[in-house]
UniProtKB/TrEMBL annotation:
Active site residues of this protein: C146 (proton donor)
Keyword flag Cell cycle: yes
Pathway it works in: Cell wall biogenesis; peptidoglycan biosynthesis
Record-given protein name: UDP-N-acetylglucosamine 1-carboxyvinyltransferase
């Protein structure tokens, strides 16, 4: 491992602690005594991957917005900081989880202030459209986010240029301006990128004229962002075949919205229930946005009950069964679900395959599982049936998991958000004691996960 990587890791650990500290998690290490089924009820709040974009959308309104069910996670803290350096007043609403976002005094921010807040998030790129509309300029620092692939922003820059933005690469980021304003455009994405689709939505709603976007992402979080923008006064049509049409309007007002629940967090706790032979009721989870996950959960041998106020996920007993999973864009099996579910697949009787087609480097978390006794091989080929963008390109993007294997305790370091939750599940389902460090990263996307582990009867200690 080279010096730069070590530095990166040191920085990553530093920022992991910052992530944790920003939401009250002072510990960076957790010692888990595994083998105890997780049993009980937890609640999930608004989706990290919607709430952060909804906060950015508030910039487009001429009056304050109210966002409900906002989770206390560090990614929300980062976006809040970025909005505040741009003059947006962010205050807590009447109820816990309500945020009031007042964009009336939006102003330019110094790049150093933006840089300081950007930290390890990808969200700053989505500030472009709203800031270009409000201020005629925008500055985007170098982006962060989980190291699960190269994660370029070429689609984002391409669509912004097509709207008429002038994009200047600078040593510490990207500066943008719109000398002639922003005009509607005919656009097509080479791949249904969630971020690039959000970029188009947040820019086109106030652009002059009509925008047609082909090859759009249609994830539930995209649909909920469209709900919000329509509440603000936007005109957006979603056709079949991933075509979205937006008629630009001159003015938008603030919204009042309850965020869509976090289906990634719900799927993660479901995977934890299955791997620990447990029984977890996830309050706030809904069937409609999890249909594909529920199918696979059932095929592996898990059981679930759909209720009005949530979904109960449990291990009904019996052997778990192997499956073939190919991650894909919605309505396919979501890439953020594979890492947590892999632990249950190590206990399945037979050979499972996970073909990761959305990110080219999302198996970094596997090394630690092999150290704990799992039998997992990583391959460069497209295993699973359908060739993907990463085939024949030297990326380790398929995993072959042979079970059943018994995991045993080990000392492991969290590599990224979903990989981190997967490591928690591994330690909880393993025989013996594990130490999981760098856990601060997990608080980027999982509200109060320590409190929820306590509620579910996990046996652990926190270390500072
Ligand atoms: C969002 O990331 C989510 N993050 C991700 O969740 C999620 O995995 C992903 O969508 C896919 O559903 C947030 O919403 C903050 P993409 P995003 O643009 O928007 C390539 C989590 O754990 N691409 O759909 O960054 C890209 O490299 C996170 O919660 C380009 O090539 O994802 C990737 O291979 C992880 N050029 C693919 O498209 C571009 O300009 C999908 O990326 C943009 C993307």
């Amino acid at each position: 491992m080279n010096a730069a990587r070590l530095n990166d890791d040191a920085n990553e650990r530093g920022s992991a602690q910052n992530h944790g500290a920003s939401v009250g998690l002072t510990a960076d290490k957790i010692t888990i005594r595994g083998g105890i089924p997780l049993i009980g009820r937890i609640e999930v709040k608004g989706a990290k991957n919607l709430v952060t974009k909804a906060m950015v959308a508030a910039l487009l309104g001429e009056t304050p917005s109210v966002l409900k069910d906002v989770p206390n996670i560090s990614d929300v803290r980062i976006v809040r900081g970025l909005l505040e350096v741009h003059g947006v007043k962010v205050t807590e609403g009447a109820k816990p989880g309500d945020l009031i976002l007042d964009p009336v005094d939006v102003e330019s921010a110094h790049f150093a202030a933006i840089d300081a807040h950007a930290g390890s998030s990808r969200i700053p790129i989505l500030f472009c459209g709203p800031l270009l509309h409000r201020l005629g300029e925008a500055f985007i620092p170098d982006l962060g986010g989980c190291r699960i692939g190269d994660r370029p922003i070429d689609f984002h820059l391409e669509v912004l240029r097509k709207f008429g933005a002038v994009v200047e690469k600078q040593p510490n980021g990207i500066r943008m301006s719109a000398p002639n304003g922003l005009k509607g455009a005919k656009l097509e994405l080479p791949y249904p990128s969630v971020g690039a689709t959000e970029q188009v939505l947040l820019t086109a709603v106030r652009a002059d004229g009509i925008t047609e976007l082909k090859g759009a992402a249609i994830e539930p979080e995209i649909m909920d962002l469209i709900n919000i923008l329509q509440k603000m006064g936007a005109i957006i049509t979603v056709d079949t075949d991933r075509v979205i049409r937006i008629e630009g309007v001159e003015r938008l007002l603030g919204y009042n919205h309850r965020a869509l629940f976090d289906r990634n967090e719900a799927a993660s706790w479901a995977a934890a229930a299955l791997a620990t032979d447990g029984d977890i009721f996830v309050g706030g989870a809904r069937q409609a946005e999890m249909i594909t996950f529920l199918n696979v959960f059932r095929k592996v041998g898990g059981a679930f009950d759909i209720c009005d106020d949530g979904i109960r996920f449990y291990h009904p007993g019996g052997d778990l069964k192997p499956v073939i999973i190919e991650t894909d864009v919605h309505p396919g099996f979501m890439t953020d679900w594979q890492q947590p579910l892999v632990i249950a697949l190590t206990k399945a009787h037979g050979t499972s395959i996970v073909h990761e087609t959305v990110y080219e480097q999302r198996f970094g978390f596997v090394d630690a599982l092999v150290e704990m006794g799992a039998t997992i091989q990583i391959h460069k080929e497209c295993l699973g049936g359908h060739p993907c963008r990463f085939g024949q390109r030297n990326f380790n993007h398929s995993a072959v998991i042979t079970g059943p294997t018994k995991l045993h305790g080990a000392d492991i370091v969290v590599p990224d958000l979903r990989g981190g939750f997967s490591h928690l599940i591994a330690a909880l389902s393993a025989e013996g004691t594990s130490t999981v460090s760098n856990v601060g990263i997990i608080s980027r996307g999982y509200e109060n996960f320590i409190g929820k582990l306590r509620l579910l009867g996990a046996d652990f200690d926190l270390e500072g």
